[in-house]
Amino acid sequence: MLTQSFGASHIPEKVAFDRGELSAILSIYGRMVAAGEWRDYGMSLLSDVAIFSVFRRTAEHPIYRIEKRPKLAGKQGMYSVIGMDGRILKRGHDLRNVLRVLERKLIRAVDD
Hints:
Elements: E1 5-6, E2 9-10, H1 19-34, E3 40-45, E4 50-55, E5 64-68, E6 79-83, E7 88-92, H2 95-111
Antiparallel strand pairs: 1-2, 3-4, 4-5, 5-6, 6-7
Helix pairs in contact: 1-2
């Protein structure tokens, strides 16, 4: 936990993926890299969201973002997969179910 008190303000705690979440994300990432579809990734850990961005090439905009927003846990679900155009492709409470939207892309990539 990264919270400290300095008068009325404090440093906000950062949201991060835990070991199980990263394992699920890296599992599909590795399969997509092996299929030649993805090439690079980046992670951003902010005070309200953790983002795993997937790139086809290193210098591009991400083709997918996998986001964890704990504030949405009681509503639509804290996990979401967002496409390059900003559309939410899948949202839910269970990360593995949310990541299934990307597995459909893997099936197409291998069948080509």
